[in-house]
Amino acid sequence: MIECKNIIKTYKNSSGDVPILKGLNFKIEDGEFVAIIGPSGSGKSTLMNILGALDTPTSGEYYLDGKDVSGLSDDELAGIRNNKIGFVFQSFNLLARSTVMRNVMLPLIYGDYPKEEREGMAKKALLDAGLDEKYYYNLSNQLSGGQMQRVAIARALVNDPTMILADEPTGNLDTKTGEIVLSTFENLNREKKHTIILITHEKEVAEHADRIISIRDGVIIDDYKVRK
After folding, report:
1. For residues 197, 202, 208 and 210, what is the CA-based torsion angle, rounded to 10 degrees?
2. Could you read off the pLDDT of 48-62 as tens digits, one per residue?
């Protein structure tokens, strides 16, 4: 499903090229739940942007579903993001004065799905994300943090993406609520067979995944299965 071959990313500053990613090689298979962990400055956010088709590597190849996306144009990358990747962010990124249903249906509107299909698809995604039906027509700013993150997960699921990319999804939640959200990801992976990539700097969060890829100073220093 995902294959990275010698991924290198450099940025330019007044002193010249600054290496961020230094030749990363790994694969992620369909249905895996993988955490990418590293401290601030390790390169994990840069890698996340490449995996999410938000950026391209300076050199190397990134294959998603067998297609090399590392050299695509901005419009082509936007198409990949809309059709193959569901994003879940630390800050939820919901429209505060829109209903839960409208927030979840938003990618379907951009994706030109028929109007009559959107509501059913949104309800299914919300059900899979574990949000109680009584909240579906609440405004998103009337929800708790954990409920808002479930809405964000539903929005990521709604167009049936190839993978869900979650960037520090528990960062704005208390410990108990964060555990509930992580359990939701575990269920989506085990019961619904969704491929999930979780970006985090916390070992306790990463250990909810089945595999951990550890990055430091732009290189992979460990890649191992989590014993459960």
Report:
1. 60
2. 999 999 999 999 999
Q: 222: left (phi > 0), else alpha (psi -120 to 50), else beta?
A: beta
For 9-44, the pLDDT digits (tens) are 999 988 889 999 999 999 999 999 999 999 999 999
CA-based torsion, 187, 110, 36, 174: positive or negative: negative
Domains (ranges, CATH) in the chain? 2-223 (3.40.50.300)
Please count the other Cβ atoms lying within 10 Å of the Cβ belonging to residue 134: 7
Closest CA to 181 of 200, 163, 159: 200
Give exposure, 193-217, as e/b (b: 16+ Cβ within 10 Å): ebbbbbbbeeeebbbbbbbbbbbee
**What is the SS3 string spanning the chain?**
CEEEEEEEEEEEECCEEEEEEEEEEEEECCCCEEEEECCCCCCHHHHHHHHCCCCCCCEEEEEECCEECCCCCHHHHHHHHHHHEEEEECCCCCCCCCEHHHHHHHHHHHCCCCHHHHHHHHHHHHHHHCCCHHHCCCEHHHCCHHHHHHHHHHHHHCCCCCEEEEECCCCCCCHHHHHHHHHHHHHHHHCCCCEEEEEECCHHHHCCCCEEEEEECCEEEEEEECCC
How many alpha carbons fall within 13 Å on the CB side of residue 187?
12
pTM of the model: 0.93
